[in-house]
Every structure is written in C-alpha cells, then in structure tokens.
Inverse folding.
C-alpha cells in the first residue's frame, strides 16, 4: 500500500507536514532511487554533502544536535534538509519523549541507507525503479489522469518521455480516455 497523508503533529492540531508511509514493498521500489540520490546530491552541493556525510558518520541525529555539531542556524539547516527530504536521501521522523509531567517533541534525521540498510544492494537503475514505482502508484490510485503522473514524484531527471508508453507496452498499465489504470492482474502475472 502506498499512502501519502497529512500529519497533524503540532499541539494545536494544525497540519505541520506530510508523511509518506512506506511498506517493505514500496521501500524496495524506492531504494535504487534514494541511494542514487544520495550520491547525486552529495556531488551537487557542498552543504548537502556536509549534512549527508555527517549523518553517515554520526548516525541518526536530532535537529538540535545537528545544528550544534554543524554550526548551523535553524533556517540554514531547514534549507539544507528540505531538498534532501524531498528527494528521499534524508528521512525525518518525529519523536515524543516524556519530560517531567509532559513530553518533548523533536525531529530526528536519518539517511535513507541507514533507515533501510537491508533493502540495499539492489543495483537497479533508478529510472527503471521509477517506472515500477509509478506502476505501483497507479495500482494504488486505481485510475489517474495521465497528464498528472509526471508531477507525482520529485525525481524528474529519471523520467523519460516514453516512460508511460513503455509501461503500457510491457502490460503493466493501460490507457483509458486520457487516464491510466493498472493492467489486469492476469496480464501482470503472465509477465
């Protein structure tokens, strides 16, 4: 099951972010993409490399610890982590710790390959992984306007103009009146 849901993690109940709930099956689909993104983003920006390398060495780290250890202001860390989270290289999780009679809320950042170490080693092409992830997303959504599919994922650089057509030719998707649906299970099983 692939689920994107808004999460209310503030005391006043207002929405403070979005979470992608990832099953083991979806993690296997995401893995080649997220691992490739770690390397791409490390090479693309010195600040991203510094944060990713720090997490690799230190392991999962709280936001306050990262700010202190890297000497960053809150806004500087936020501007570094936002694109890393959007591309799946860094995962943020909210933690609630009992403190006295209440609790304290804080976020912890983890690299993808630390959160999902056992999934690694797939060696799959990230473009091919995106194709399979798209097919899984269409199966989960039942029907989707074809023109919207490209906006579903952050990784536009892995998208090709023939991606949907290739999935149709492979029997994983079908086109129906400008929409895309998953091919019948029997057709997928025959592959």
């Amino acid at each position: 099951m692939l689920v994107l849901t808004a999460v209310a993690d503030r005391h006043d109940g207002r929405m403070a972010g979005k979470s992608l709930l990832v099953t083991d099956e979806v993690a296997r689909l995401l893995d080649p993409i997220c691992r490739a993104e770690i390397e791409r983003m490390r090479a693309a920006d010195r600040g991203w490399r510094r944060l990713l390398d720090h997490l690799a060495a230190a392991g999962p780290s709280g936001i306050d610890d990262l700010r202190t250890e890297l000497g960053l202001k809150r806004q500087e860390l936020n501007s570094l982590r936002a694109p890393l989270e959007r591309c799946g290289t860094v995962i943020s999780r909210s933690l609630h710790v009992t403190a006295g009679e209440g609790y304290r809320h804080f976020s912890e950042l983890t690299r993808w390959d630390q959160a999902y170490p056992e999934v690694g080693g797939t060696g799959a092409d990230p473009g091919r992984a995106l194709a399979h992830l798209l097919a899984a997303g269409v199966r989960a959504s039942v029907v989707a306007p074809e023109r919207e599919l490209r906006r579903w994922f952050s990784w536009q650089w892995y998208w090709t103009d023939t991606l949907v057509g290739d999935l149709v030719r492979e029997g994983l998707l079908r086109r129906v009146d400008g929409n895309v649906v998953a091919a019948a299970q029997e057709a997928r099983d025959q592959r």
Q: What stands out?
A: Confidence is low (pLDDT under 50) at residues 1-15, 186-190.
